[in-house]
Amino acid sequence: MTDEQETTAEPATSGTEPKVIKRYTNRKLYDTVESRYVTLDEIAEMIKAGGEVKVIDNRTKDDLTAVTLAQIIFEEEKKSSRTSMRTLLGLIRQGSEVAQQMVGGAGGDLRERVDAVRQAAEHRVQSLLARGQQTGEKARELVSASQEALAGLQRRIDERVRSAWDLRVLQLPLVGELLYLEKLAEIAHLIAEERPALLACSLYMWNTRFFADLAERVKRNDPTTRIVFGGPEMATDYLREGRYDGLHVDFCVSGEGELTFRDLLRELSSPEPELAGIPGLSYRAADGTPFTTNPRRTPVRSLAEIPSPFLTGVVDDEVLRRPNVEANLETQRGCNLRCAYCIYHKDMDRISYNEIQRTLEEVAHVTQRAVRRIRFVDANFGSDLAHAKAVMRGLIAMRPETKLMFELIPGFIDEELAALFAEFRSLHPWNDITLGVGVQTINYEPLKLMRRGIRIDRFERTFALLKKHELFAKIDLILGLPGERLADIERTLEYMLDKLRHHSAHLLCCHVMRGLPGTELLTIAERHGLVFTSRHEPHELYESPTLPRPDMLKCLRRTAVIFRLVNHEGWADREFVDPQDRRPDSRAVHDAYFRAKDRLAVSHMALLDRLVHGFFEILPRRSYFVQDDFPFAETWWWAHSKHEVGTEWLVGFLDRL
């Protein structure tokens, strides 16, 4: 018996249960009862003999029964077709009638109804096979009919919720430290004037403190206003451990929030809400009591199950027509990798893709309203190269005038996709492509520990394609990965700065290691002695046994200098942080930096240390950079460095060295 068989074999099931067939990534099908591989034809024979089967994905545990049975029908159709159009139409009509009956009830969870639709479809397919009625066209139309029934069911429930609630969306800018108290009072007053029955906030690490303070003020102004928190900061494990019990909120949503929030609205509009049946929801039995946390919600199979916030008007035209607005779109959720520090795959056991046509419709919708920058917030746009290429071909056919940004894991790009990016960029003078490439470090062992075993040769191949097609990359690094020492970080920075020398468009963004809620990194941190703090910025690494605080401070100040050099005016042929997207007149900073390095014949780290010393000489004591513990380091990189350190001074300082 092979290793694969030994690790997946299961006890035989009873006669009343379906036989479990496991499908591997190589598409082989394994009968767990008879402990052998089987073919589609053999599965068809099992069903014709009166047996029941259940096909599951060996890795994700997804139920693939309907897909496999549809494939069997399609393959059988190649041999013979004996099904009349009358039978086919009757099957589709039956599916529609079942869906209509399901919509009739007022309560119940949508997921249960969706499962009922799928189970009904699977039963019909198996019945047809048992009777010897096979047709490939029927399989395709059955799938289409199930999708239409699901969409109709969803629309009816959404309409019922919308009719019961007057939903208003407030689009608020990021609130910085300087205006924090002023904005907090202003928004609390705005909400008090509206007197909402329910206030919902989506929490990210950069706004968690603000919304926690806002919730306290809202409750103080009107204790009857109920508040729900959702977003990436809401971790199911944290809720179960009671870490959010002190928040002044009534409900929390963890995992994908759209359907959970919709179900919450539906139940709150009922005289007797049944909150215990809403997956992904945490609620209080009474004011001041700990949260009760329901089971996690199963991730959606397709983003098409969730109404588009753009096409349904949730994001209104006034927001889209604001100057320099950037639209955030999704082509997928989830990720190929399971990086220990990342939240992209949190509560997601699969990648759920959007329909390509809907993605294109969303792009058309926002660009027709003057949006000229779109960021696709996928973890890895190239996770499925065929899907990524289909999106790009559709965009090229549409010819929108807009800049696009995608996140891309090194290695998930090939010659054809790179050429499509370049073709889109050539459509209009304004068009551009920015690829966020997460390298994190060139040291393999820390990456392996983080479940991100990407070797440097994959980045080299990716970088070569970007250079060949003149594509713009924002390269991301992480400071403080478990086990990394100062010398390891120096090695990565030396390598990356060398890479940037001969390219006019690549930018380099360093990020402090963050211990995000719900990530495996927090468990690893306990073993490796990493210390996190939210004293200044959320969840940031303070120090570790291999990177004590003095070494961490040296890294923070060096990378602050790099950020000012590389990501603001004077380095590349565009400025990454400038919201006006003005193109700098020259590469004066870039050229002065490398002139100084060559003249002095020193390493990048030695030259950066001289710049750090120069910054200390010119910056005022109020600057975060010169304060003892460098508080708000990343805030300084992004928002203060350009204004506190001018281009003219930088060029002059480098030329005088």
What labels would you give this structure?
single chain; 657 residues; alpha/beta; TIM Barrel; six-stranded parallel β-sheet; 13% strand; disordered N terminus
Detailed description of the structure:
The protein has 657 residues and is of the alpha/beta class. Mean pLDDT is 83; it is low at 1-15 and 80-111. The chain is globular. Among the domains are: 3-163, no CATH class; 180-293, no CATH class; 307-482, TIM Barrel (Alpha-Beta Barrel). It has a 6-stranded parallel sheet with strand order 10-13-14-15-16-17. The protein is built from 23 helices and 19 strands. 45% of the residues lie in helices and 13% in strands. The longest helix has 29 residues, at 136-164.
What is the CATH architecture descriptor of the domain at 307-482? Alpha-Beta Barrel
Average predicted confidence as pLDDT:
83
CATH topology type of the domain at 307-482: TIM Barrel
The strand order across the widest sheet is 10-13-14-15-16-17
- Number of H/I helices: 23
Gap between N and C termini, in Å?
69 Å
Give me the Rg, rounded. 28 Å
Largest sheet: 6 strands, parallel
Shape: globular
CATH class of the domain at 307-482: Alpha Beta
In terms of structural class, how would the helical and strand content be classed? alpha/beta
The share of residues in extended strands comes to: 5-15%
Name given to the CATH homologous superfamily of the domain at 307-482: Aldolase class I
Give unreliable regions as ranges.
1-15, 80-111
Q: Tell me the number of strands.
A: 19
User: Helix fraction?
Assistant: 40-55%
